[in-house]
Amino acid sequence: MPILLKKISEAYQESITNTKQADKLYIQLYKLLSKMIIKVEIPENSILPPTRILANALGISRSTVLRAYDILILDGLLIALKSSGYLVKTKVEEKTSHTPIASTNSAQLSDIGKSFLKLSNFNVSNSRENLAFSPGLPPLDIFPVTQWKNLTNMYWKEVKFSNLAYSPSSGIEKLKLNIANYLALTRNITCDPSQVMIVSGSLQSLYLLGTMLVNPGEAVCLENPTFPNVHAVFKGLMAKIIGVPIDKKGIKVDAMKKGNYHPKLIHITPSCHYPYGIKMPFDRRLELLAYANEKNAFIIENDYEHELNNWENPLPALFSLDKNNSTIYLGTFNRILHPSLRIGYMIVPPQIRVPLEIMLKHSHRFVAPSVQFVLNQFIEKKVMHNHLHNLIAVTKERKQFFDQTFKEVFEGTGWELHPNETLSLQTLVKFGNQKTDKELVSLLNKHNLSAHSFNKCFINESKEQGLILGHCSIQKNIIKNKLQRMQTALQTI
């Protein structure tokens, strides 16, 4: 430990002596330690000096050291050990092989069980600890932790024994009422609170809806490209998946008409198509509603980032335009608060409310009442309203900074940002080299950077290549550092 402390101290003094730093102290320390860990100047499995000791050695505050360590943890470089300090994480090579299907006694599985087993290589989420540049993450550092903590403490202080029993499967009434009112104000949606179903997120909604409405072999129309996890859910449920091409207005209704399809479900992301960021105009929305009514199909309107993309110049939700009760509206708080929260909602047409409530009761039962209560208070006490204003301002600022910095760092490399008219949480990047985006994702992971494959967003085989990068989960000075590291890593190919 004394040797490591001396090494860090000398490197720190050298860095502040030789470099004019505009960054805050904790950013300077974070960059120094990050560089030393990546270059193995600080070996794997080393225990870093305790925060007080390092702070004294460097002549800075302990809180500065704590903030630098926290960013290193979020960066996947450190692990906080309970009562044992901070451990430099061992680099584990990404494994591409999975347990062979043959090793599982698949004869005992149902057809749907076997179908999901085939999705073992289907990556559908961020499983790594790297914040940069994981798509779909909001600015995590601005989440009002203190207010949420106080509301949680209030719940447990005032909770009654009766509140610890089973809870209504579709959600607590106060929260359902507040969500109905919230959507009336933000999306012009008129619904009865009984139509609101509280779930853990969009994936659970899709699984429930697919199970309830689609028999194996029946058609489901998906935007092509789309979220890989949306594709995975319906593929696992053995639906006949039809990829419908996209144009500048969103899903091409005329392509569905020419195909003479008979879909049971049509899944769309009209406020911000994933990953192109296209916003479906009013006339295309009406055209899609007419088509769904003609085919007696349900539309799943996945409005996954509507707060960001409809705050200014909003377009009406399809649910609010639908006169035939054929639209199911999906929303989530995981993308505007934080993904570990695991709470979202569906607004369903009256005719499927009862069977869906029964399915909820006989599957996951309910979302934790404590989380529902705190979220309800979060909305009632206007904390949500204030957070949304802050979220939009910070997301806009970081997106602009990301775009500008990316163009500077990658100038002349052939890497370009795909135009995006919306304020989404991710950006599509196109490139011209011969590597596949799958290879590039793997390479970036080895440098503690996250990205998603654009190619995996397509339903069928596609030659399209690109990376999907989140651009606002980390602060601006760290964004620049990470983009420079990304550019350095990509130069090795």
Spatial extent as radius of gyration:
24 Å
Q: Helix proportion of residues, in percent?
A: 40-55%
Give me the CATH architecture of the domain at 169-381, please. 3-Layer(aba) Sandwich
Distance between the termini: 37 Å
Structural class: alpha/beta
In percent terms, what proportion of residues is strand? 5-15%
CATH H-tier superfamily of the domain at 169-381: Type I PLP-dependent aspartate aminotransferase-like (Major domain)
For the biggest sheet, the summary is: 8 strands, mixed
Q: Helical region count? A: 18
The number of distinct β-strands equals 14
Mean pLDDT: 88
Largest sheet, order of strands side by side?
A: 3-10-9-8-7-4-5-6
CATH names the topology of the domain at 169-381 as Aspartate Aminotransferase, domain 2
CATH class of the domain at 169-381: Alpha Beta
Taking pLDDT < 50 over at least 5 consecutive residues as the criterion, the unreliable ranges are 93-102
The rough form would be described as: globular
